[in-house]
Amino acid sequence: MTRWLPALTVAAAVTALLLLLKTDISDMVAYGAYAGLAVVGPGVLIYRALRRSPHSLVEDLAFGTAVGLVVETAARPVFWAWPILTVILLRRHLRTPDYPQRPTIGWSWAVAGVALGFVGYLGWAFMRLNPPVPERGPVDYMIDQLNLLAVAGDLEHHATLAVPELGDEALPYHWFAYAHLAAAGRLTGIDLPVLWFRLDLPALAVLAVVLLAVAAWRVTGRAWAGPVAAALMYTVGETVLPGRAPAFFGSITVYYSWSSRSVLYASALSMPLIAVLAQILRQRSTARTWLLLALLAAGVAGAKSTVLPVALAGLVCAGPRRAWRPIAVLAGVMGLALVFLYGGEGGGLTWKPFGIMADFARGRPLVIAAGLGAYAIAMGFRLAGALFVREWGPVERFLAGAALAGFAATVLIWHNSWGQHFFAIAGFPFGAILSAAGLRRVPPAGVAAAVGLAVVAWNFTIPPPRLAIYGVYGFAALVLVVALATRRAPAALVVVLFAGGAGLPYDAVHHANLGTAYHVRVTPDQAAGARWLRAHSTPDEYVATNVHRVGSGRQADQSLAYWISAYSERRVLLGSWGYSPESNAIQAAGGGVGPARQYWDPARLQANDLALYEPTPARLRWLWDRRVRWILVDRAQGRESPRLADQTALVWSAGDIVLYRLTGPCR
């Protein structure tokens, strides 16, 4: 029982957090049953059938869960039956094998501590401020959250993904994380916003921590590299004084761990992929290992488009003569994903060296050089353990190459919504494992100095953006002074690596939920109207609306209002267009930042709006012919014509929100 205590403690803490956030117990039980029976159980059986040999129970459970997430997406057409079929076909793997390895109680508690810290950050920085549905008053949701919730809702009801606010327009996207949520919603009946804002995030967070710990153990052959690698990614923040740094600094865990569910989902799937590739580079593979590699590569390709490119770069660095076969597998999978998932689109990525520093560098070479130095200090100090790796073989070169490729791509590639940061995030687990391999012990002097620096970091903030570089250098100098005072390299590394320990708690307290700068305010009336629509319509019925922009705040001129499709789980004929392939293409071509302000088909937009503001039988018939059966008007965006009620049926209203139903084609 003692060896299960760390896992039980984490489970109890997550349960307590969910109860404090007033999550329904029946939803928690249903989600737990779904995860165990439809993901973990069948995934473990498939992993046991494909792995080369047993290692430890924690590996089977962790890697098996990752496999279960991949197969869950592949089995969407038969998602009711695939767990049962898996048990029938692989029943001989139900018997628990004799494991040669067992984690120590100290290892388990260390990993549990990292997981608890990470979940605590997510709970305070994000979950407590985002109720699943606004009921007691308006709530400011980050725009991306509602857009991605709408994507999950679309996948819950349709076989192929479309831009939720643009009717049938196909959306080439890494959608596997959202298909996972959609499958969970359909199998359990749990409300999708509850899955999104409550149940799924802490579960994925704990899984990602355990997966990285197990992957580092397997890759390095040293058990304690596991919790160290997990801490470097999910506990230690950037080595920079907390505060608003220029956009180019980015982050690894702060903000990105909750702002886009695909980041956390993809990082989880990356860990077993790294372990399998390391096994292949050490020439310890069987035919089943290659099948497992292809399965994990396919899952990663659909989870986040940035992972396979950095993994391929790492394999090239490992040495093409040894790595040509895994290179071929990953390149083949990436090619298929480019065709079938991404439709050959680049998603708005363009080649623009140092474009990420454009907000302050302005092409000046000395400033760019200083910025690169500051970036290396802020983002790379946690990977300094790589300097103490004793032997550099193909695996070590693979890990280093992937990490460096991630940072290089972030600096050299441009995206209108700062999506280039995802390359650095994709490469970081590779570097964290390598850094953990070089940290063979953690001396008390280093820990004490690191705690002291974390306190210093907590009490200072970065100066204005143009002076931020000097703040970083000053902080780095302080780190090095303390490191030299220890007179021991391992202690110095501990100081450097853990000096960012204040980053996550500082962000949770001072910048929780990213404030309100990039948010849309959703009222209880708006959410109630959208949810009434969900309850009284079918997924094949489209919605017409006058809501195209967020309506308030600094983003009032941007087309980023996704609350209708997020809460109704219905496709809107023409709502917001900011997150669409055309918008990305327009901004990439023009070098703009953010989404396209104007819609590229003004005649279509005018036809949509005139049907609400100046309705005629012909204009309403235009909507009907495009599968529109409902009209949602937000009078805060513009009041509809009184004639609309004469030609349709008014079915629901509250505050500024009015719903009409088209009863048939107008003639």
TrEMBL record:
Highest taxon of source: Bacteria
Spans traversing the lipid bilayer: 32-50, 62-85, 105-126, 195-217, 223-241, 262-281, 293-316, 323-343, 363-385, 397-415, 421-438, 445-461, 467-485
Keyword Transmembrane: yes
Entry keyword annotation includes Cytoplasm: no
Keywords: Membrane, Transmembrane, Transmembrane helix
UniProt name for this protein: Uncharacterized protein
